[in-house]
């Protein structure tokens, strides 16, 4: 019998190629694989985008840097560490700047600042003359769209913005021509939170006012809360200072509560003992497992780490740091023994699977600490890691996972 012909890459079935491509943890690498040849492109673009949606749920966002709202300075982009970035470090600061806008945000952050980043888009809030109140832009394609902010239905002039963030379009995708913006404001005479949504695909001025659920009793806090992060499905986690978390569904705009087994006392009203929450994503236990999701609860100097159990929707308390002052003093180059209490503690999400803590003592000395979310190991961040030098007003910019790729005929 003649020996079987030698095998080549063209003989690998599509099912096996999909298993290989699911282990690519960057959308840039997945696009490069699809551009290599038709043999690679077919399993990626087939099934109406089902493979791309699955790949997006298995990997944490590929963060390439942070936009930083400096006090008294222009908005700056700080690249992430070169070892964790899927694109060239030297070109990112120039490529992801806002120099393509009619009037680049060079004034202080109180006049023009980043409000949110999602799906490769950046939302800017502006108080500069000659610029729209809100600007949605895509730094990669250098396109933008200006939006004039709405007014509450009561036409009251005494109101202020409490939060602004991006949402996917009606079809679940997002681009500079297909997006939604939720704008929260508190009306003084109304004494409640009024939310309105801008839809780029809607007629008229694009603004509408979603209705609350009929059985909702927390009118003042229905849409309120700081954005703690986003889920892999695009839902938004809203953290309240009172110690609770809600999820805003990005499609229906309905809000539901998150059942967190919080052990820290949240009934005290002493300032600064209010709750703050941060959502952090990390890789799953293996390349074919869904991305892990944690919620960090910070209250005073106590931290709690909750992990979402995949498939059940249950949150479990995975780790606790009851006294951050005591925990950090045990580390090399941490706060000295004379620092009995920390004056200020902030949590930001750094690279995928890592949380960054910024602590400030009463003598205004500050330190940065990193926590590996899988091992819960606390370490001092070297001073040369300057892209973490601020914790307030920082917004992580992640490469968007492609929702659809078209197969060319050639």
TrEMBL record:
Entries under Pfam families matching the protein: Beta-prop_AT5G49610-like (PF23635), F-box (PF00646)
Domain of life of the source: Eukaryota
Residue stretches making up the F-box domain: 6-54
InterPro entries: AT5G49610-like_b-prop (IPR056594), F-box-like_dom_sf (IPR036047), F-box_dom (IPR001810)
Protein name (record): F-box domain-containing protein
